[in-house]
Every structure is written in structure tokens, then in C-alpha cells.
């Protein structure tokens, strides 16, 4: 019998295609940190953690607004991004230069060209939005709860270990 937790082609390796989780629930937690703490506890107790998975249930996409976009911010960000890329290209050009050592010419050319194109692309991108998204944000995928599932053969032992963990006081350092 094969384990539903492993790839049948390569034991111990998760499947490459999206696969629904299987197993019996041995714990349910409000935060990922708590679920991670539970699995860490199982590992410390020499439990076979390869039989365990953390499953986020009721997924949500949370977009936190980090600031307002203005022309000056867009252009500064574009210039900085272009400068880094141009500096990288300039340094690559010095590697293939016939002169020994780092020469300033290719680095400076790459830097200036990078800043120019970074400004142009940032301006075109922001201008084409026409004020429809004048803010910056960071997105995060979060779950309403996190279940710890386990292969049925060792679920009872896992539940017992997690029950003992639940009886211990939570230490902020652990």
C-alpha cells in the first residue's frame, strides 16, 4: 500500500501537481505559528513528521496598503530599479572587456542607461493606469485556521503528543 503523503514515483517527495490533502486531523490552530509549533513539538518527540502536513483552511487574499503612489515616488523607484539593473549589466560588461580590472566606462554606461530605461518604463506604466491604482500594497495569502493532518497509521500517537503540548503553558521564547 502506498502512502497518500508521498509521490508514488519518488517516495518522500511531495507531488508536483496540486493534490488535495489526505489524512486524519490531529490538531487545529488559529495561526500558522501555532501549527508550526505543534509540528516542531512532534519532531522533538521523535514522531515521524514525514507523515504530517499543515493545511490552511478557508483561504483569503489580504492586501495591505503600504502607501500612496505619486509621480515622484514612481519615478524614484523606477530610477533606482533601473540603476541596479544597469550596474549589474555594466559589471558584466567589464568581465568581457579586453582591458584587465574593472573599468569605469562600461559600469557608468550601464548605470546611466539603466536609470534612463527605468524612468521611461516606470512613467509609461504609471501613466497608462490613469489614476486607477494610486497606491502601493503587499498581498498575502492567509487561512482562517490551520489543521495538522497525519497519516492514519500514526494519527493516534500524534493526537496524544499534541494533547500533552496543549496542556503545557506557552513560553514566548519557544
From TrEMBL:
<protein>
    <recommendedName>
        <fullName>General stress protein 17M-like domain-containing protein</fullName>
    </recommendedName>
</protein>
<keyword id="KW-0812">Transmembrane</keyword>
<feature type="domain" description="General stress protein 17M-like">
    <location>
        <begin position="26"/>
        <end position="99"/>
    </location>
</feature>
<keyword id="KW-1133">Transmembrane helix</keyword>
<feature type="transmembrane region" description="Helical">
    <location>
        <begin position="74"/>
        <end position="96"/>
    </location>
</feature>
<feature type="transmembrane region" description="Helical">
    <location>
        <begin position="108"/>
        <end position="129"/>
    </location>
</feature>
<dbReference type="Pfam" id="PF11181">
    <property type="entry name" value="YflT"/>
</dbReference>
<feature type="compositionally biased region" description="Pro residues">
    <location>
        <begin position="11"/>
        <end position="22"/>
    </location>
</feature>
<dbReference type="InterPro" id="IPR025889">
    <property type="entry name" value="GSP17M-like_dom"/>
</dbReference>
<feature type="region of interest" description="Disordered">
    <location>
        <begin position="1"/>
        <end position="22"/>
    </location>
</feature>
<keyword id="KW-0472">Membrane</keyword>
